Amino acid sequence: MERNLGELLNKLRREKLLSLRDLSNKMQLGEEGHIYLSKIECGRILPDNETLKNILNALDSVNRLEEFTEELKRSKINNRYDDKREYKEETYFKTLKKRKVSL
Fold it and tell me: Coil, helix or strand for 72?
């Protein structure tokens, strides 16, 4: 299965146990920053190189900049955006918290 830049960023963010709002706050993107980041992760938009660097810096993964920059060059916007695909941040983190409590 081919992955795009947004999916790779989503995986990296989840590995760091950060919500989109947390990442947005770290990047100081303002009240609606999580919406912008969600659009990147869903593949609706591609970030520019500077934004990509800022995202990786906020994820403490700036050492992977070259890898992600190469992926950005290969990524294409899928104009057939699936409206049924939505990011359910709250569900993901509630499940994660339940797992931690049960361990």
Answer: helix
User: DSSP H helical segments within the chain, as ranges?
Assistant: 5-15, 20-27, 33-41, 49-58, 65-74, 89-102
| Cβ atoms within 10 Å, residue 79 | 7
Amino acid at 73: K
Report d(CA 60, CA 53) in Å as an integer: 10
Question: Long-range contacts made by residues 58-64, C-beta under 8 angstroms, separation at least 24?
Answer: 58/23, 58/26, 58/27, 59/12, 59/13, 59/16, 59/18, 59/23, 60/16, 61/12, 64/12
Look at residue 47 in the predicted model and tell me its pLDDT: 86
Half-sphere exposure of 83 (CA within 13 A, CB side): 0
- Global confidence as pTM: 0.68
